[in-house]
User: Fold this.
Amino acid sequence: MAKPHDLTYLPASFELEQEILDQLSSRPGSQRCVVGRDELLLITQDVPKSGNPERDAVAFWRRHDGLWVDTQGGRGLRRLAELIERFAAEIKAIETAIDTVATAAEAFGLARASGPLARATRNLAVAVEQALAQDEDSKELRALRDRVREVERAAETVYQDTRLALEFRQAERIEKQNSASEGLTKTVFQLNVLAGFFLPVITLCGLFLLYFHSKLTFWLAGPCGLAIGAGVVFMLLKNSGKSWK
Assistant:
């Protein structure tokens, strides 16, 4: 049994079978259970860090005598249970944050964080299932399998909830933009109606004052302009199918 120097993600205390070493590379790779002749190596990953694509490997070695050992030399699978609970705590934190999302940017941040969590818990559940298939009598592994499946479902639910929150905020933003656009269009229309009403009055009064220097003529031009303006407004409202309000 030995451990090559390029397997830096494994502790020196892991004196693995050659059958297991032949299946490993310098990178930990995906979460999985590597099966040897009499031993198992369960390779898992720590909770993903936001914005960091790299994953820290957390390995568990089942020796030929059936004893599980973690990377820190601890016996048993207690640290695997702790790892699963760290995932559960992170998922719970995102689930709580969903209720306070106020902007699309915040919703996007949660969706970006929950996606890797959902994938990591899914792969972790698969790795534990693989280990249990090789150690079917382990009650501890069976309990951890059931727990990680619960966490996996919670992670998938939170991921879907964050995506829905993001879509809702985006739809809400579009709705506000459309509402503002409709308000602006209505205001422009009202200004056009007012211009159509007063333009004939101003034009006629200006022309009559320019060419006819009679106040009586000016007062005759006013009602004519108002009548024309009213006709213009009526035609605008009729052809547009809109109301003033």
